[in-house]
Amino acid sequence: MQNYDVVNLELAEGGRRRIEWAEREMPVLRSIIERFARERPFEGLRMAACLHVTTETANLMRALQAGGADVVLTASNPLSTQDDVAACLVSHFEIPVFAIKGEDNATYYKHINAALDHRPHLTMDDGADLVSTLHMERREQLSEIIGGTEETTTGVIRLRAMAKDNELKFPVLAVNDAMTKHFFDNRYGTGQSTIDGVIRATNILLAGKTFVVGGYGWCSRGLAMRARGMGANVIVTEVDHLKALEAVMDGFRVMPMIEASPIGDIFVTLTGDINVIDKHHFEVMKDGAIVANSGHFNVELNIPALEEMAVAKRLVRPFVEAYELPDGRTIHILGEGRLINLAAAEGHPASVMDMSFANQALGAEYIVKNAGKLENKVYAIPEDIDMEIARLKLESMGIEIDVLTEEQIAYLSSWQEGT
Questions:
Q1: Which residues form the S-adenosyl-L-homocysteine hydrolase NAD binding domain (predicted)?
Q2: Residue 214 annotated as binding site
Q3: What CATH number is associated with residue 208?
Q4: pLDDT single digits (tens) 291-300
Q5: Known binder of ligand: residue 17?
Q6: Is 295 annotated as belonging to a binding site?
Q7: Is 279 marked as a binding-site residue?
Q8: Is 373 helix (H, G, I), strand (E, B) or coil?
Q9: Domain for residue 405, yes or no?
Q10: Which of 343, 372, 406 is the last residue in one of the domains?
Q11: Is 113 part of any known ligand binding site?
């Protein structure tokens, strides 16, 4: 394979304009780019990134490049690539990219292996496909890896399972667990962009619809909040008693998925688990039900079971497939069950990804600074990095906050003074 694989380099100019537009909404990352250009923390290091190829990701790649990294980028999902952005990174920034929107699974993993041919010292993942491929197929390269970072809930779950089994062979920072990531990216970013993807794919009115949200983690909380704000009647399904209780106290109806299935108009899963919507759920859904997923992998929907149930399937709109069942009912699957916010829309707003990718950039720098000192396990982003990103974000918004006085600091650290 050549040193890149994108659909068409002639798309590069349109990608450049969109990357610049996103940059305007990413002041934290912009300040990191300026510092990295001075300090060059990644000088002499090769980096492979497996991320959604979007305008925001492009600005992260620019930050790593400014820091001296020899970086290569591949897609973390077959439907999430923005082809004009991929072309621009190759043409304007000379960053090798292996990503084509709509690529099949064979091409997807061919691209991951092309990125690993770069012999990286650092990995940057969104879903852990890069890391798992290294551990399963290219173990001879593991000794070359200093460490990595992981962007998403699904990836962190996989990596912690690897660490538990003593299979993880280098340290990884769980960027997803940073408060400036999951509080904002997962809640506000996923909430808004998932609604955006559903509406772009279907052009339906949400007001008055029964909207079923699978799970009540940070991503699901954001979606439930936004769907209610659009006038939908929201039902939450959960397997965790505490999260289910929180959803009830937040004013949502909570019930098992099998009870929600006959009454829901729209279903979206965001759990990181498999078969959240299964055959027995499809069997009782109403005619015209719309089903989507905004978790990282499309396994949240048992699409193979639906394929077996259906007597016909056809594309009725871009990213909308209608499955006709023997009794005449039709169930609509959006975006092949893949991340609907990236399959049918543009993913999170840049202002949210500003914080997430600041965590990625500073997390990678932390890995380099602590090379050889970290164990082969999953680490949380250090609190001081999290707080610095929050400070920079507030500063960029022109917002100031109070500072503790010496008296207040002394009071908080004492125990003698009571009622």
A1: 186-347
A2: no
A3: 3.40.50.720
A4: 999 998 899 9
A5: no
A6: yes
A7: no
A8: coil
A9: no
A10: 343
A11: no
Nearest to 228, CA basis, from 190, 195, 185? 195
Quick check: 175 and 128 in contact, CB under 8 A? no
Q: Does the annotation place 332 within a ligand binding site?
A: no
Residues 6+ apart with CB under 8 A from 251: 228
Is 221 annotated in a binding site? The answer is yes
pLDDT digit string, tens, across residues 316-349: 999 999 999 999 999 999 999 999 999 999 999 9
pLDDT digits (tens, 9 = 90+) for 342-376: 999 999 999 999 999 999 999 999 999 999 999 99
* Tens-place pLDDT, residues 246-267: 999 999 999 999 999 999 999 9
- Residue 21 labelled as part of a binding site: no
Residue 280 lies in a domain: yes
Q: Is 140 assigned to a binding site?
A: no
Rg (C-alpha) for the chain, rounded Å, is: 22
In a domain, 258, yes or no: yes
**Residue 307 sits in the same domain as residue 367:** no
57 appears as a binding residue in the annotation = no
Chain segment 18-76, per-residue pLDDT in tens: 999 999 999 999 999 999 999 999 999 999 999 999 999 999 999 999 999 999 999 99
| Residue 67 annotated as part of some ligand binding site | no
Domain with 372 in it: 9-181+349-396
Partnered with residue 289 across adjacent β-strands are 331
CATH number at residue 157: 3.40.50.1480
348 is in an annotated binding site: yes
One domain for residues 173 and 194: no
Looking up tokens 């498999």, which residue turns up?
Answer: 274
Residues 363 and 325 in one domain: no
Confidence of residue 1 (pLDDT cuts 50, 70, 90): very low
Mean pLDDT taken over the chain: 96
Q: From residue 384, how far is each of 28, 146, 166, 180, 290 by CA, in Å?
A: 15, 22, 28, 11, 43
- What is the per-residue pLDDT for 154? 87
91 is in an annotated binding site: no
Kindly state whether residues 327 and 199 are assigned to the same domain: yes
**Confidence band, pLDDT 50/70/90 cuts, at residue 153:** confident
Whether 104 has a binding-site annotation, put simply, is: no
Judge whether 153 is annotated as a binding position: yes
In a domain, 213, yes or no: yes
